[in-house]
Design a protein that fits this description.
Distance between the termini: 45 Å
Strand order of the largest sheet: 1-2-3
Structural class: alpha+beta
Number of helices: 11
Shape: globular
Mean pLDDT: 72
Number of domains: 1
């Protein structure tokens, strides 16, 4: 068989196998006909990653990498291009010099890649947290169900799908669920925008997401235009509605600051251009503790 024909055949075989292995049907991933992943599974994975981040104080580590003495490492004298950050975030930001009219840096200092700790909410209501008796209880079906707005059976089924997909294992020492954070980051960076595409909707009141989220808007913000929001009657801003990764996201983030950061960054990846996506991935990587 001629080399050109063989190459064509191999390419067609690749397309056929890819179509069989990965397809989108009603918001879920499938391998053949068997459901593999749903959007609530991604929400669950980021929730458990958030628990890990809180346990390991990953925000504290990032703050050490982004202290104010390094904030102006990549200052640009142009009025549109002001403060930035160093560390893992700065490595990406250093490439974002002014060749793009859609991206601007704001003048405030950013002491942490995850933003201002004193103003992170994107809503006006006060949501009480559910008390737990031990840290391990946060991983229980009951606690995850309450914090995510899912039934216990939905949480159980989601965990099973995540295990089958290789994104969730059990910690050897504690037996608690353990997220494969490196692979989850790859999924967030390369897959979510295709499997769960964003369709901007009407102008509504809602919770700011993407780089419009209060804790992230100091880092990078689109110039002009409407901000993306998750529809919520008690949201702090008006903007263009986008469907959250899962319908319970607006309530779930109100009791978990870290989860709000994660999912806002995921939306920055889903809706942003290459520059915004690059910054969001780098901040998310640091926030998840992925090296």
């Amino acid at each position: 068989m001629p080399a050109s024909s063989l190459a064509t055949k191999n390419f067609l075989d690749y397309l056929i196998s890819t179509k069989r292995m990965l397809s989108t049907i009603h918001g879920m991933w499938t391998r053949g006909e068997k459901p593999v992943m749903k959007s609530q599974d991604i929400l669950l994975l980021f929730k458990m990653t958030s628990l890990h981040a809180q346990e390991e104080n990953l925000f504290g580590r990032m703050e050490l990498e982004s202290t104010s003495e390094h904030v102006r490492n990549i200052l640009n004298p142009e009025p549109r291009w002001l403060a930035s950050v160093s560390g893992p975030v700065g490595e990406v930001l250093s490439q974002l010099l002014p060749n793009d009219e859609d991206t601007v840096f704001r003048p405030q200092e950013l002491d942490s890649p995850m933003g201002d700790s004193d103003r992170w909410e994107g809503w006006s209501d006060v949501v009480p947290s559910t008390p737990v008796t031990s840290w391990s209880e946060n991983y229980s079906l009951r606690a995850l169900s309450a914090s995510l707005g899912l039934s216990k059976s939905e949480v159980s089924n989601a965990m099973a799908r995540c295990r089958n997909a290789g994104l969730l294992t059990s910690d050897f020492d504690t037996g608690l669920p353990k997220v494969n954070r490196r692979e989850l980051l790859k999924v967030a960076e390369h897959a979510l925008k295709y499997f769960f595409p964003v369709k901007p909707g009407a102008i509504v009141r809602g919770i700011p997401t993407g780089f419009a989220a209060p804790a992230l808007s100091k880092s990078l913000k689109s110039a002009g235009g409407l901000i993306p929001v998750w529809p919520d009657p008690l949201g702090s801003e008006r903007g263009q509605s986008i469907e959250p990764l899962y319908k319970t996201v607006p309530e779930a983030v109100k009791i978990d600051r870290t989860l709000y950061h994660y999912l806002a960054l995921v939306d920055a990846i889903r809706v942003g251009g290459p520059r915004e996506c690059g910054v969001a991935v780098n901040i998310l990587k640091a926030g998840m503790g992925v090296k």
